[in-house]
């Protein structure tokens, strides 16, 4: 069984808004820029209120335009052809940020993939990383909802393919790193010649000395008073772990960040 993992953005919303019928309806609802709404924009409520109607517009738009309707579909369907992955042997895992417009885009794409015969399509909502304050919270959520799935699939003999076309985003980078550790195939839809490129995917691993240090901190209870930490680790090591965001210094102690706890527990 093959698994394709892909982020879902709002390109289908942006593209569909150029269709005259959809454009007029969006204008009447005040949703001209529905693809770029922030999470807390009040217009997200309009999307929730008219969700079923808007979903039908999107489903019809995708049927009419196929893979040209969205960046995600374009990359996925080209990848399926390149790798010769048949619907009955392919699982698709789509993840989107926790906003109504992103969820709507993901649902429309799932419907179309189902219609093409890809019945095993899963949608997962992840926390949107939109500030420094929620960055690590978002990483933990991403680990819980996405990376643990990758680990499960790898351990159960699935071949993993990761669509990295969504660009230089923290979520994509984090998942790509995990994918490399799990010997996944990473691919990218190159805009210049509109074809799938398989990215170089050298296997990577956590340095053994870091694993040893993190396990030592875990044995100490994840939170270690600075005075104790300085006895079991050098100041250079502590500073290095801080720079790598593996630990944080707070209230006179060093703490393993939640994402690093999960990383070491699973890898």
Automatic annotation (TrEMBL):
User: Matching Gene3D superfamilies, A to Z?
Assistant: 1.10.196.30, Hypothetical protein VC1899 like domain (Restriction endonuclease-like)
Q: Which InterPro entries match?
A: SSO1393-like
Residues of the CRISPR system ring nuclease SSO1393-like domain: 68-201
What protein name does the entry list? Answer: CRISPR-associated protein, APE2256 family
């Amino acid at each position: 069984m093959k698994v394709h993992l892909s982020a879902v953005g709002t390109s289908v919303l942006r593209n569909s808004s150029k269709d005259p019928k959809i454009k007029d309806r969006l204008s009447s609802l005040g949703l001209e820029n529905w693809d770029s709404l922030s999470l807390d924009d009040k217009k997200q409520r309009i999307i929730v209120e008219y969700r079923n109607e808007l979903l039908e517009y999107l489903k019809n738009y995708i049927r009419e335009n196929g893979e040209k309707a969205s960046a995600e579909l374009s990359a996925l369907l080209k990848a399926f052809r390149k790798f010769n992955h048949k619907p009955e042997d392919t699982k698709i895992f789509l993840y989107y940020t926790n906003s109504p417009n992103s969820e709507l885009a993901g649902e429309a794409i799932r419907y179309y993939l189902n219609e093409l015969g890809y019945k095993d399509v899963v949608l997962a909502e992840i926390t949107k990383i939109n500030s420094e304050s929620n960055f690590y919270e978002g990483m933990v959520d991403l680990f819980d909802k996405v990376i643990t799935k990758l680990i499960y699939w790898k351990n159960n003999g699935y071949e993993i393919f990761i669509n990295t076309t969504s660009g230089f985003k923290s979520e994509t980078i984090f998942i790509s790193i995990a994918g490399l550790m799990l010997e996944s195939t990473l691919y990218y839809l190159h805009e210049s010649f509109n074809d799938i490129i398989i990215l170089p995917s050298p296997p990577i691993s956590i340095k053994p000395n870091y694993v040893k240090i993190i396990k030592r901190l875990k044995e100490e209870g994840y939170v270690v008073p600075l005075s104790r930490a300085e006895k079991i680790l050098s100041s250079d090591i502590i500073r290095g772990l801080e720079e790598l965001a593996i630990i944080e210094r707070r209230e006179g102690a060093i703490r393993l960040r939640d994402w690093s706890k999960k990383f070491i527990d699973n890898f």
